[in-house]
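Morning run. Coffee first, then this:
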Amino acid sequence: MHRRDILKTLSLLPLAATSIPALAGGSTVTPVPGESPINGLSPDTSGAPPAAHRDLFAELGVTRVINANVTMTFLSGSLMLPEVLEAINSTSHDFANMFELQDKVGAKIAEMLKVEGAMVTSGAACAILLGTAACITGADKDKIKQIPNLPGPRPEVIMQKSHRYLFDQAVTTTGAKIVEVEGPDEMEKAFNDQTVMALFFNAAEKHSIPHEQFLAIAKKHRTPTFLDAAADVPPVENLFKYQKMGFDLVTFSGGKMIRGPQSAGLLFGRKDLIEAAKLNHSPHEAPIGRPMKVNKEEMFGMYAALKAYLERDHEKEWNEWLATAKHIAGILAPVPTLKTETVVDPGPANAFPSLAVDWDQQKVKITPKDVLKTLKEGNPSIVAGSHNDRLLIGVVLLRPDQVDIVAQRIKQILEHAV
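And here it is:
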C-alpha cells in the first residue's frame, strides 16, 4: 500500500469550476531517426541505422498503465525526466568509487538545498531507517555492527499518536521502540536516557503538537528531530522550509514529483547525522542499510532530477496543469448533467490540481466506482481516483499524448450509461 493512501480522506479545496473546452497543454516530440530523444545528438558517428525497438512490456506481458491519479509506489511512482534518463545512460558505461560518489553527490545536493549534509537513499523509507540508525549509533563502530541487537534497553523514538503510520516500521527495524504521545505535556514527560530521536510525519491529518512546539520541546531535551515529508512537493519551497524551521533530518522521496528514479530518495540535514547515516549504509559491507544499496546511476539520476526540479518554471508548470484540467472538462462537457471542478488537495502531500467530475446518477446510470473499474479494465488500462462520490482525474502525471485518450474514454463510458 502506498504511503499516501492515508491522505485519501483529506478534503479537497475547490479552485475553479470549469466546463468549457481549451487547447491541450504541451505536445509530443518525435525523435529524429538516429538521434537521441534527450539531447538531439547522434549516439554514434558510424551512420548505422538505429537498433530495432524492443518492446519489453509486450515481451513480458506487462500491462501499460496510464496514471490519471497521483504518484503511487505500486504504479511505479512517476515518470523520470529526460535529464534523469540522460544522467543514467551517460554514467552507466564506467565504474565509480561509491564512497566518493555518495560524498560528492551529497555535497552538491547539500549545496542546492542549503544544508550541512545530504545523501541519496533507496527511497524515503530507507532514509527513515538510516536517520534512525544514525541517531542510535553515531559513528560508534561497535553499535553500527550490533544494531538492531544492541545490548541493554531499547532505544526510543518519540512520535505523536496521530502520526503513527505504516512506514514507521522503518524505525522499529533498527531495534528502536516507538513511544506514542498526545499533546505537549505527554511529550515533555516521554524523554529519558533511551530517547534517541523525535519523528514528525508531515502529512498526518492531525498534529496535537505543531511543528514549532515539537521542535522546541525536542531541542530542550537535546534530542535530534526527523521530518518525513516524502510526497510534500510541490510547492518547491517545501524543500527548504523544514530545515529552516530547525529539523535536524528531513526526507523527501526522489521518485514522486521531483521525478527522479522511483527507488531513490533524499536524506539531508545535520552533517554529523548524515555522516553517521552513511556509515550505516552501503557500500559499507555489513551495516543495517547494506540491503538498501543505491547504484551509481540512481545517484547521478537523483542529482540530475533535483537540479532540474529546482530550475523548473513552477508557475508555468502549474498553469499547464490547469490548462489540461480545463481541456478535459471541455471534452466531457456534452455528457448530460455532468459538472466539473478543478480542485487542489490541501496537502501537504499531493498538493496539486485534479479535475473533479460528478453527474446525476439517476440520468447517467453509473457510479464513479464503476467508472474506475471500467477504466482500469480497458485497453489501455487507466487508473484514476475518487473522493466523496466524485470521479477525480489527476492531470499532473499525464503525458501530453495521453490527455485526450483519458478524456475520450471517460466520455465514452459516461455516454454509454445514459
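The chain has 14 helices and 14 strands. Good start to the day.
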